Amino acid sequence: MTVHGLLAWGEERLQNASRSPSPRKDAEWLLRHVLARDAAWLLTHGADAVEEDAAQRFATLVRQRETGEPMQYILGECEFFGMPFRVMHDVLIPRPETEHLVERVIEIAAAFDSPRILDVGTGSGAIAIAIAKQLRHAQVTATDLSKGAIAVARENAARNGAKLRFLQGDLLEPVSGEQFEIIASNPPYVPSEEKALLAVEVRDHEPELALYGGADGLDIYRRLIPAAQALLVGGGWLLVEMGFGQAEKISAMMIESGFVEVHAAKDLQGIERILCGRKKGRE
Questions:
Q1: How far is CA 28 from the centre of its chain?
Q2: How far is CA 228 from CA 97, 224, 262, 270, 274, in A?
Q3: CA distance 14 to 23
Q4: What is the 3-state secondary structure (H, E, C) of 60-110?
Q5: Which CATH number fits domain 3-68: 1.10.287.370, 1.10.8.10, 1.20.120.610, 2.30.30.100?
Q6: Which end of the chain has fewer beta carbons closer than 10 Å to its terminal beta carbon, N or C?
Q7: 80-279 belongs to which CATH class?
Q8: 118-138 tens-digit pLDDT
Q9: Would you list the domain boundaries of the chain?
Q10: Quick one: residue 182, left, alpha or beta (phi over 0 = left, psi -120 to 50 = alpha)?
Q11: pLDDT for 183-229, tens place per residue?
C-alpha cells in the first residue's frame, strides 16, 4: 500500500471509531512515527509504497488509537517545558497547564540563594526536571509512591541532562526530617464521583493513582498541606496545582495550617490553577 493509501485507511478507521477528535492528524503522526519521517516527507512521497512490516506496525498503532489510548502513550513520549519526556501507563501525561506551576516555582525561587526544592508525586518527573534545568543552583528532590513512576522519571532526567534526587515513598515520608525552601506538587485532584465524566482517553488509560483524590478530590491536599508546613523553612513556599472550583477549599486548608499570603494564579483559560502559600518566618 502507498503512503497516501495508508493515511486514508488510518483516517477512516479513526473517524469511524469516534475516539479521535483529529483522525487525519493522528494518522499522520502515527505513520510518521513508524516511518521515522517528517510531515513534509509524507506530503511529497504520497505515491511511495510502504513495506509490509511498516504497514502492519502502523495498523497496530491505529487499532490502539481506536480504543481511545492517548497518542502520548502510543508514541511513548510528549513534550513539556520544551523538553521531551518518555511517558507510559505508570505516569500521568504532563499537561500544558502544569507549566504554570514550574513558572511560579522559578519566580519564587529567585528570593533564595540556593533553594532546596521538593516535587511531591513527581510522576514522569516533568515538574522536577524542568525546575532542575532552569535553576542550576537549586537542590531538587522528587518523590513518588509508584516504583514504576520513579523509574520513568530517572530515565527522563538522564535523557534531559538534569541533576536531581528521586526517592520512592508516600508524599513527604521519604524526606522526613529534612527542610525545604519550596515544596511543589500536582497531586491527584479529580473527584472519584466524576470518573464517568472524564474523556475515555483519561478514564480508561491514565493511572488512577495519579488522577483521583477521593470523593471530593481533596484527600491528598488534606495530608500534604500540614505535612509541608512542618518541612518548610520559615518564609518557605508551598505551591500546588488544583482543579476547577477547588481554590476556595484548598485556600482554607492552607490558612488553617498557618500559611500566609495565600493566593491563586490562573492558567491561560482563566481558571485558578496554581495555589501558593508562604510559611510564616523569614520576612
A1: 24
A2: 23, 6, 14, 27, 16
A3: 5
A4: HHHHHHHCCCCHHHHHCEEEECCEEEECCCCCCCCCHHHHHHHHHHHHHHC
A5: 1.10.8.10
A6: C
A7: alpha beta
A8: 999 999 999 999 999 999 999
A9: 3-68, 80-279
A10: beta
A11: 999 999 888 888 887 787 788 787 888 888 889 999 999 999 999 99
